[in-house]
Design goal:
This protein has 169 residues and is mainly α. It has 7 helices and 3 strands. Helix 3 runs antiparallel to helix 7 and helix 4 crosses helix 7.
Length: 169
């Protein structure tokens, strides 16, 4: 038990501060989206872009099979976006004082926390087993997992964009 606790403490203490800052931002944003709020497409793009850049940087600089990984990543990103569209199928919008509003939901917080947790665990695994960067099957697995979870962000953005377009028309 103490060995496990030691490993956990080492993992947490070696995590860069910026990772904890991203976690706090995700939690704050996810909690705020649980209540009705104005639609902000600009804010909606922040987290997916951070996760995409984080993933692409890792793919381009560390993995030994970046072409296979990137192909898998992009395909699974599209699949994740489709899954997200299904998750957000009941997302509702309304206009209040000429501002497009979205109803609150726990889905964004769940997506953000699962994305962060999966990404964090994958990076811990890679930090402790760096030989995985050169294993083709792990490269593809990383692409599947990372691409799909990043794709989950896009369903809400697509639904919000559609609602804004309808309002403008």
């Amino acid at each position: 038990m103490t060995a496990l606790l030691t490993i956990i403490v080492q993992i947490l203490s070696h995590t860069p501060v910026w990772v904890w800052i991203i976690l706090l931002i995700l939690i704050k944003r996810g909690i705020s989206l649980q209540t009705d709020s104005p639609v902000s497409l600009a804010k909606s793009f922040i987290m997916p872009i951070i996760f995409i850049l984080w993933g692409l940087d890792t793919i381009a600089t560390k993995f030994h099979f970046p072409l296979y990984l990137l192909t898998t990543y992009l395909l699974c990103l599209v699949l994740g976006a489709c899954a997200s569209l299904y998750l957000y199928r009941n997302k509702r919008f309304y206009v209040q004082n000429t501002v497009l509003m979205q109803t609150g939901s726990k889905i964004p917080l769940c997506i953000m926390m699962s994305n962060f947790s999966i990404k964090y665990c994958l990076n811990v695994l890679l930090s402790t087993h760096s030989s995985l960067y050169s294993v083709l099957s792990f490269n593809i697995t990383y692409g599947i997992i990372s691409g799909f979870t990043v794709g989950l962000f896009w369903g809400g953005i697509i639904k919000s964009s559609q609602a804004k377009a309808r309002l403008s028309a």
